[in-house]
Design a protein that fits this description.
Distance between the termini: 44 Å
Strand order of the largest sheet: 4-10-9-8-7-5-6
EC number: 2.3.1.37
Shape: globular
Structural class: alpha/beta
Family: Belongs to the class-II pyridoxal-phosphate-dependent aminotransferase family.
Catalytic activity: succinyl-CoA + glycine + H(+) = 5-aminolevulinate + CO2 + CoA
Largest sheet: 7 strands, mixed
Subunit structure: Homodimer.
Pfam family, one: Aminotran_1_2
Strand content: 15-25%
Number of strands: 14
Radius of gyration: 22 Å
Bound molecules: 4'-deoxy-4'-aminopyridoxal-5'-phosphate
Helix content: 40-55%
Number of helices: 14
């Protein structure tokens, strides 16, 4: 069997349709965010990063960096084992207590990433709750889809953000254990779920509510507890899932919920049990980041100001972007080849890095630049991005391609 021919054939097909992924070679420099070094043919150059999920710049916050450095010095590098076998350090337990407090829940459970937390929690719930049905929002993230698939539970898709459709489908399922999985802020469109209505529907049907707040934790709510905190709904959601890798600026994922729910996942989820725990220094840095963002609104306020400023400038230039009430600005291109070309020109000619978002991350025909302004983007950075986009819009005749 010539495996290379199989690999190359599929890679060539991806390239032909414009969906082959290439990654920028970047070096983040503490103290310089959002400027980074881009290693490229012929050397290096400074680029301004406009697509980072370190939304608040916490990855270079002095308290977070110090916590990580101090803990590496005191504990060494790795955890030394799974949580089950010697890797259950005090730093993990402190972080879980911090997370439970952040969401006003009895308990929390850490995973190595947000992806793993969704995959592990949903596959465990779906497979271990007898006769369970999982009702999944049609816009859910790949990590939820994979977890549901792996559970082998029956799955019912409901129309994105449509709580009436959810209600109808819950009725149709009848008297079985029901799990409703959805997100608060959707990563690619930046739209926000009608959480109150969804929660009410879940309560009316006795369903377990499962929300992914990956793009909202640290960002919304007076203490950074996400949209569920902002709306005063956290106590009515059965399970809140989040990441430590985006607004908190570190890495890792988690779930929070009742003590018995977290103990259930802890006891049965292979994605929790059979993998080495996060390094203690990562846990300590995440704890420092969460503690800071519980007290400080300054980063969230500055970030919101930057988002509003950029949106207003794009509007003035007539550059279309999806309207939403979040911090994510999707500038729609609607064609994979054009999307990559614009991204390349921005990088090569302007030193502006915005990764093109193509299929399968978004549906075909909705290719886009996903722009995430942060508190550390200056007025000059915004001026430069806007004039680059304005120039490209004029010269590349993009207006007609926009969705
Ligand atoms: N859920 C959503 C909605 C996401 O967008 C992502 C990652 N982009 C994840 C979960 C996975 O989180 P992590 O990056 O921490 O693995």
């Amino acid at each position: 069997m010539d495996f290379d021919t199989i690999f190359q054939g599929q890679l060539d097909a991806l390239k032909a349709e414009g969906n082959y992924r290439s990654f920028a070679d970047l070096e983040r420099r503490r103290g310089s965010f959002p400027t980074a070094t881009n290693h490229c043919a012929g050397g290096t150059r400074d680029v301004t990063v406009w697509c980072s999920n370190d939304y608040l710049g916490m990855g270079q916050h002095p308290a977070v960096v110090q916590a990580m450095v101090d803990t590496v010095q005191s504990c060494g590098t790795g955890a030394g084992g799974t949580r089950n076998i010697s890797g259950n350090t005090h730093h993990h337990l402190l972080l879980e207590a911090e997370l439970a407090d952040l969401h006003g829940k009895e308990s929390a459970l850490l995973f190595t990433s947000g992806y793993v937390s969704n995959w592990a929690a949903l596959s465990t719930l779906g497979s271990r709750i007898p006769n369970a049905v999982i009702l999944s929002d049609a816009g859910n993230h790949a990590s939820m889809i994979e977890g549901i698939r792996h559970s082998r539970a029956d799955k019912v898709l409901w129309k994105h953000n449509d709580w009436r459709d959810l209600d109808r489908k819950l009725y149709a399922v009848g008297d079985r254990p029901k799990i409703v999985a959805f997100e608060s802020v959707y990563s690619m469109d930046g739209d926000v779920a009608p959480i109150r209505e969804i929660v009410e529907v879940c309560e009316a049907h006795g369903a377990l509510s499962y929300i992914d707040e990956v793009h909202a934790v640290g960002m919304y709510g007076p203490r950074g507890g996400g949209v569920t905190e902002r709306e005063g709904l956290a106590h009515r959601i059965s399970l809140i899932e989040g990441t430590l890798g985006k607004a908190f600026g570190v890495v890792g994922g988690y779930i929070t919920g009742s003590a018995s729910l977290c103990d259930f996942i802890r006891s049965f989820a292979s994605g929790f049990i059979f993998t080495t725990a996060l390094p203690p220094a990562v846990a300590a840095a995440a704890t420092a980041s969460i503690r800071h963002l519980k007290r400080s609104d300054a980063e969230r306020m500055a970030q919101r100001d930057r988002v509003a400023h950029l949106r207003a400038r794009l509007d003035r230039l007539g550059i279309p972007h999806l309207a939403n009430e979040s911090h994510i600005i999707p500038v729609m291109i609607g064609d994979p080849v054009k999307c990559r070309m614009i991204s390349d020109i921005l990088l090569n000619d302007w030193g502006i890095y915005v990764q093109p978002i193509n299929y399968p991350t978004v549906p075909k025909g909705t290719e886009r630049l996903r722009i995430t302004p942060g508190p550390l983007h200056s007025d000059a950075d915004i001026d430069r991005l806007v004039s680059a986009l304005g120039t490209l819009w004029k010269h590349c005749a993009l207006a007609h391609a926009v969705a």
